[in-house]
Amino acid sequence: MPAAATRLTAGAIAAQLSLELDGDSDTPVSGINSLADANAEDAVFVADPKYLPQLADTRAGTAILSPAHRAQFAGTALLSDNPYLAYARLSQLLYPLSTPAAGVHGTALIDASAHVDPTASIGPYVVVAANARIAAGCVVGAHCVLGESVTLGAHTRLHARVVIHDRVALGTQCTVHSGAVIGSDGFGFAPDAAKRWHKIQQIGSVRIGDRVEIGANTTIDCGAIDDTVIADGVILDNQIQIGHNVHIGENAALAGCTGVAGSTHIGARVQVGGHSALLGHLQIADDVILMGHSVVSGSLRSAGVYASVMPVMPVRVWRRLVARFRQLDRRA
């Protein structure tokens, strides 16, 4: 368990995060830990009631809890109606990201026409092409490549080995993790009479809003004609594929290994479980929730929770069900 960047008291945390304090305001907090491994200077949290029995045995000095569960913890409590959100904010307070020193590393290659704000940090072996613009407070990690006319909004951070193709625009306070590729060609080809494929030039780009987080090895294709658009506050997990001309609405969240085919529009606040597949040219309404492994072949025009794909079961049961499916088809 790494030590926090700063050591605070429960009272100071309550004041900074606007939480209700019940207990000793001088209780020290030097880290966040699990219920099982915490010590007297650690904070823990309980968001799921199934973990409440562990409160009796934890050695933590401070716990983030719902007011309804206060009586089940003997130590100092930080009370919140949303303990998970309070935990998230505490993690940011105790473990802020380190910021490299401003400046351009001597091995970076920056085109003379590019603009790099003096407060930005450009790491080793970064390549920045013509007319790119990197705003104040940006961090560009080692071996990143930024194409022509790329723009990074203020305080956006690229981890090592991110590739951003020409004319892609990222807003402020975005985070892009290692291996991500933004603005690569969409999958557009036309067959001729002999079934040979002819590439369709992908002339659009990608527009990404503010406070977007893009996971490791995720790819976002440029638009075929219009741009691919990722709105403010979207979070994309690792190893996601976003096809050309996809639009993703504000504060949507897509979990790992999801694939979204071209020209699908995903509404605001949509949540997509891991390993889901969305076919192309669909409309997904605001506030839709897709369970993991969902396959979406038609538009979803109203909010709600949707699922597909049968859960795992013993193979003998699966074979019996498949046989019954076939019988139903023959009867039809």
Describe the structure.
This protein is mainly β and 332 residues long. Among the domains are: 8-94, 3-Layer(aba) Sandwich (Udp-n-acetylmuramoylalanyl-d-glutamate--2,6- Diaminopimelate Ligase, Chain: A, domain 1), CATH 3.40.1390.10; 162-306, Hexapeptide repeat proteins (UDP N-Acetylglucosamine Acyltransferase, domain 1), CATH 2.160.10. 11% of the residues lie in helices and 28% in strands. The protein is built from three helices and 39 strands. The longest helix is centred in the last third of the chain and has 17 residues, at 315-331. The radius of gyration is 24 Å and the shape is flat.
What's the short version?
The protein contains 3 helices and 39 strands. With 332 residues, it is mainly beta. The strands form 6 sheets. An 11-stranded parallel β-sheet has the order 8-11-14-17-20-25-28-31-34-37-39, with no helix packed on it.
Descriptors for this entry?
single chain; ten-stranded parallel sheet; 332 residues; Udp-n-acetylmuramoylalanyl-d-glutamate--2,6- Diaminopimelate Ligase, Chain: A, domain 1; 11% helix
